[in-house]
TrEMBL record, chain B:
NCBIfam families per UniProt: PRK01059.1-4 (NF002194), PRK01059.1-5 (NF002195)
Binding residue positions for ATP: 27-31, 87, 121, 172-176, 203-208
Catalytic activity entry: L-arginyl-[protein] + ATP = N(omega)-phospho-L-arginyl-[protein] + ADP + H(+)
Species classification: Bacteria, Bacillati, Bacillota, Bacilli, Bacillales
Placement of sequence motif RDXXRA motif of the pArg binding pocket involved in allosteric regulation: 333-338
Keywords: Allosteric enzyme, ATP-binding, Kinase, Nucleotide-binding, Transferase
Name of the protein: Protein-arginine kinase
Domain of life, per lineage: Bacteria
Top-level class of the enzyme under EC nomenclature: transferase
Signal peptide: none
Length: 180, 351
């Protein structure tokens, strides 16, 4: 969403004003919000922003999230495709494009851990088009989990079956080449 | 014109049927977030790109699905609000997306939002507890669209989304559930923390940040990474089954121990609905919840169950103004709301 005041920068502050039960919504970028803070917020000073909240949540001890002004020479981490900077991502909580995931990969893992309860790897559906060996690899991972369960429950016959299945899948993966 | 149908009917036709556990679970919903690999995410999308994309995505579901496309820029703010109140589009799509669009099925059980926070948001709905069924339907639509476009997908991270809280499956599975028993017996505050420990969230009827009007809650998964779609849905189903059991026993306890009080509450609320001349959203929602509970328990027999779902939506500000044909002051709305509820209930009694 773009800021409704300057219509240039993305809006990072969203709030609702209620007067006599009539709700009005505002979507502003931080700059305009600071400028218009008084007008929108009835003289309350803007001392807290969404950026603070996300920055706090992500709590990354990188120079990018803490006082960037003091590091003017620091190379700015940026997505080469959409030009979104890491700082922008932290402020908005939104990526600019799919390539951002790669550009911010190193910083992303701790963020995902926090947001996704420690999980960082997808185990669900795979688009048919991606195909290749990825589907097989996923099935192997599922079978391995089943194998473990079978062993724990001492169902050795079915464990052996599962093991054979895993082997045949692994052969398939090898023969189809390393592409995924 | 079909826009008028989407706007004028309060109850989507899928809602008028009953599903499993319809006495407590009002509806099930699954949403899949998807993005196209070769376009910037909606926040950074240009107008012409957004339009190209809308066409591509619509083509994906052209065959086999009869979907009507509504462009946001062609709708009035009031029309958009009505669609939000019916849960057919999100507040975000209504307020923000200049190039947003929605594809709707005739019975309104399918809604595909284009250029919301993500390029594609596939949403499927069904009455009662039918999460597996709606997931299957959403997957079919997903496959159909994937046939025409290239999704942003990463082997490690899964389906890439604009917000890191949706990455992975891009799945949000939710149920709308009516829990007057748990609210009256004050058990809900104990149940909510337990649910959130399992990676699920309890919210009000209109999603994030909304109030729980009329004892209706939305329960949905919080996590989208590390679990498969089927596991997320299975876990939610088992949570919902537990909540249903708790709600049923709470209702039994209420009916057994303080039956006269409960009956009094139900009929007082019925009295308010059938007689008031001015009523606010919140009070109307609470009374509707009481009456619905009265119907479920058997105190009230001459009114259909769907009254709660129907009147909850019909008495929202957007709908009232749509009926009035223009903007209304809050007090005018409260007067209209009261009149509408009285009329609707009288209609039931005469049936």
């Amino acid at each position: 969403m773009i800021c409704q005041s300057c219509k240039e920068r993305p809006a990072s502050l969203h709030f609702t004003k209620t007067v006599n039960g009539e709700k009005t919504e505002f979507h502003l970028c931080e700059k305009c919000a600071q400028e218009k803070g008084e007008q929108y917020m009835f003289n309350q000073h803007f001392d807290f922003s969404i950026g603070d909240l996300l920055g706090g949540l992500f709590n990354l001890n990188t120079p990018f999230s803490s006082q960037p002004a003091q590091y003017p020479q620091q190379k700015v981490l940026k997505c080469g495709n959409c030009q979104t900077t890491f700082q922008q991502f932290v402020n908005q909580g939104k990526f600019g494009c799919a390539q951002c995931y790669e550009a911010f990969q190193d910083q992303l893992t701790p963020i995902l851990k926090r947001l996704q309860n420690g999980n960082t790897v997808h185990t669900g559906k795979i688009p048919a088009r991606i195909g290749g060996t990825l589907h097989l690899k996923k099935e192997i991972a599922e079978l391995k989990a089943k194998l473990q369960q079978a062993i724990e429950q001492e169902e050795f016959e079915s464990a052996a079956d599962i093991r054979d299945q895993i082997r045949s899948f692994e052969k398939k993966v090898l023969s189809e080449g390393g592409e995924s | 014109m079909s826009l008028e149908r989407f706007i004028n009917q309060a109850v989507s036709s899928w809602m008028s049927n009953e599903g499993p556990h319809s006495d407590i679970v009002l509806s099930s919903r699954v949403r899949l977030a998807r993005n196209l690999a070769d376009y910037h995410f909606p926040l950074f999308l240009k107008a012409n790109e957004a339009k190209d994309m809308t066409v591509q995505i619509s083509e994906g579901v052209q065959d086999g699905y009869q979907l009507e496309r509504l462009e946001m820029e062609q709708l009035s703010p009031l029309q958009k609000r009505v669609l939000v109140e019916k849960h057919l589009i999100s507040p975000y799509l209504a307020d923000n997306a200049a190039y947003g669009a929605v594809l709707l099925s005739e019975s309104e059980d399918i809604s595909i939002m284009i250029n919301e926070e993500d390029h594609i948001r596939i949403q499927c709905l069904a009455p009662g507890l039918q999460l597996k069924e709606v997931l299957e339907k959403a997957n079919e639509l997903d496959d159909a669209i994937e046939g025409k476009v290239k999704y942003a997908f990463d082997e490690q991270r899964g389906y890439l989304t604009s917000c890191p809280t949706n990455v992975g499956t891009g799945l949000r599975a939710s149920v709308m559930i009516h829990l007057p028993g748990l609210v009256l017996t004050q058990q809900l505050s104990r149940i909510i923390p337990a649910i959130s420990q399992l990676g699920f969230v309890v919210r009000g009827i209109y999603g994030e940040g909304s109030e729980a009007l009329g004892n209706i809650f939305q329960i949905s998964n919080q996590l989208t990474l590390g679990k498969s779609e089927a596991d997320i849905v299975d876990d939610l189903i088992s949570i919902v089954h537990q909540i249903i059991a708790h709600e049923k026993s709470a209702r039994e306890v209420l009916a057994n121990t303080s039956s006269i009080r409960l009956e009094d509450k139900v009929f007082r609320s019925y009295g308010v609905l059938t007689n008031s001349r001015i009523i606010e959203t919140k009070e109307a929602a609470q009374c509707l919840s009481d009456v619905r509970l009265g119907i479920d328990i058997g105190y009230i027999r001459n009114i259909s169950r769907s009254i709660l779902n129907e009147l909850m939506i019909l008495t929202q500000p957007g709908f009232l103004q749509q009926y009035a044909g223009g903007p209304l002051h809050p007090e005018e709305r409260d007067i209209r709301r009261a009149a509408l509820i009285r009329e609707r209930l009288q209609l039931e009694e005469n049936c």
